[in-house]
Amino acid sequence: MTEVFIKTIGVFVAVYSYAIMINSPTKYLIWAGVSGAVSGFVYFICTAGQIDVVIATFWSALTAGLISHIFARILKTPVTMFLIGGILPTVPGNGIYQIMHHILENDRAMASYYLAQTLEIAGAIALAIFLMDTFFRIFRRGDWKQDSLRYIRKGERKK
Amino acid sequence: MRGMDYKLLMDTAMLAGKLMLQSGAETYRVEDTMHHILKTSNLEKTEILVIMTGISASISGEDVAPISMAQRVDTRSTNLSVIEQINHISRRYCAGELSLDEAYCLLNDVKSVTYPRWVSILAPTGVAIGFTVFFDGTYYDVLATIIVGIFLSGIMLAGKGAGIPDLILDILNAVSVGIAALVMKRIMGDVMNLDTVIIGSIMPLVPGVAITNAVRDTFQGDYISGCARLLEAFLKAAFVALGIGIALSVFGEFITGGIV
């Protein structure tokens, strides 16, 4: 229990700092951190429950997408502000290192195992972001829609 | 809006687009914002083409001579505060709260958020420490990461100041992480887990921004920008790995006496 708590705090600090690195506006730093912390929490719960890393990544990124889109709608700001921080805990830094480590040890089998895993993780992140974007596009409202460019053009053609 | 200054409108849209692209906004967001700004002229034709390295836009109407502009964008970094401010300005302009002149002036005054200097310098250290905790780091690992992180922060600051190209800087940063981690391993011995420290410390360097933008651009149907960003993400990841590899293979034997 304490472990979960400490790790969530850790991710919060990490994502908060990362948000500073990419020059997020000061008032959104906390929210970016929360987005990352929730994503990290889900990732940890999934991996602790013996779920495969790739699937854990998928759920974690999906949660990050959900949280980011909700925050973006509440705070009326671009969704990337929170999404970048949200998916950061799942970005395969571990995979990148393990690939190199095993190449140096001349262990080709493990290197290609981690290469495949890293690519799968990247795919899982992409899929999760895509699903959440699509999901929220169905429920868009207001006059400033994310997809409004194509929306306006469709209207033009009808005239 | 008759009698509008179309040249100024075009300049405004171009400025907004250029700033957003330089700050690392997704391509479709740039197109969308420019489209909204240009649409306030009510002209029949407003076309915008944005790719990662440049913008071109043109407007024309029945009684207005076509105006076209192209803008090459060379420098790209990530600055969400600039994107947020431009988003805010263009929303207010399109809602009619701002006049065109005011919007142009505001866009010219857009400045990046400034943190206290030590905060922006030490931010990578925070990322490294947080992720070391997340990746099962012990107290000793965290202690080592603090030192590695501060070293990395210094190198990143110096690299930015020297104007080294981004990808070379990635290798340099990764090499410095590797070397610093090896030195800490030499000092601390068996209590420190080299893998955890290195994995935590390279997290500030991983291409999180590039991956997010690549996915969002690609699924928006913008394959050119999506591919470009995907390539950026892969190259960054590969170069970080390369840097770690250089550090471990060249200096590993030398610093730790062949533990790695």
UniProtKB/TrEMBL annotation, chain A:
Residues 8-134 form the Threonine/Serine exporter ThrE domain. It is a multi-pass membrane protein. Keywords: Cell inner membrane, Cell membrane, Membrane, Transmembrane, Transmembrane helix. Signal peptide: none annotated. The keyword DNA repair does not apply. It is found in: Cell membrane. The keyword Electron transport does not apply. The chain crosses the membrane at residues 5-22, 28-46, 53-72, 114-136. InterPro entries: ThrE_2, ThrE_Dicarb/AminoAcid_Exp. Coiled coil: none annotated. Belongs to the ThrE exporter (TC 2.A.79) family. This is Threonine/serine exporter. The lineage of its organism: Bacteria, Bacillati, Bacillota, Clostridia, Lachnospirales.
